[in-house]
Design brief:
The structure is a single chain. The two termini are 28 Å apart. Helix 3 (61-78) runs antiparallel to helix 4. The protein has a single domain (13-189), classed as P-loop containing nucleotide triphosphate hydrolases (Rossmann fold). It is globular and about 45 Å long. The longest helix has 22 residues, at 168-189. It contains 7 helices and 5 strands, in the order βαβααβααβαβα. By secondary structure, it is α/β, with parallel strands linked by helices. The model is unreliable at 1-12 (pLDDT under 50). Strand 4 (121-125), helix 6 and strand 5 (161-164) form a beta-alpha-beta unit. A 5-stranded parallel sheet has the order 2-3-1-4-5. 49% of the residues lie in helices and 12% in strands. The chain has helices spanning 28-38, 47-53, 61-78, 92-103, 108-116, 143-156, 168-189; strands at residues 16-22, 43-44, 85-88, 121-125, 161-164.
């Protein structure tokens, strides 16, 4: 694979952070894997997937907070190993929505964290992929509801995001195009 010249980073610059967010079963993990491979960098898996999957009970508010804190820890741990760009298979807006939807409350610190450390780009995955059932997915019938909620959160915070839709290589190419455009803009302003 050829390296993209648009995404060269000087040693003194910080890593460009991209979060892939969207409803369940919209290809977030696949997209992160493909993007990291394309850009010869690392990506951060969704911590909660393994954590919740290993519980022998229904998850609690405390479990979701553990997952949220550990996801932040993983971001900070992985960032030094990234090459120009770091991709994340979830982020704290998703956690905020999860807390509010399931528990109708969230940790006091979470809103401030989102405001203080936003990602440089959010790739919002459309609900145009077939739903793949698995034991951890709870919201097959509510994917449009969550898509709209994530979009509203991004809009209300005035965060830079791009809608990623389509299947296979078309979806990947849209994500690459959005990442490259945002990265070029980022370089012009820093």
């Amino acid at each position: 694979m050829e390296k993209r010249s648009c995404c060269s980073l000087k040693n003194s610059e910080r890593i460009f952070r991209v979060a892939v967010i969207g409803a369940e079963s919209t290809g977030k993990t696949t997209l992160c894997t493909q993007l990291a491979r394309h850009y010869h960098t690392v990506w951060i898996p969704e911590f909660s997937r393994n954590y919740i999957g290993q519980l022998n009970r229904k998850y609690t508010y405390e479990d979701v907070e553990i997952c949220t804190v550990e996801q932040i820890h993983q971001e900070k741990k992985m960032e030094p190993g990234a090459s120009r760009i770091l991709f994340s298979d979830t982020e704290q807006i998703l956690a905020l929505v999860w807390f509010r939807d399931v528990f109708n409350k969230e940790p006091e610190w979470l809103e401030n964290y989102i405001s203080e450390r936003p990602f440089d780009l959010y790739l919002l995955t459309a609900n145009d992929l077939a739903f793949q059932k698995d034991p951890l997915r709870e919201n097959r019938e509510r994917r449009d509801f969550f898509f709209d909620w994530y979009r509203k959160e991004l809009d209300s915070r005035n965060l830079k995001y791009s809608l990623v839709k389509g299947t296979g290589n078309k979806r990947l190419q849209k994500a690459i195009h959005a990442t490259e455009n945002a990265f070029r803009e980022y370089q012009r302003t820093t």
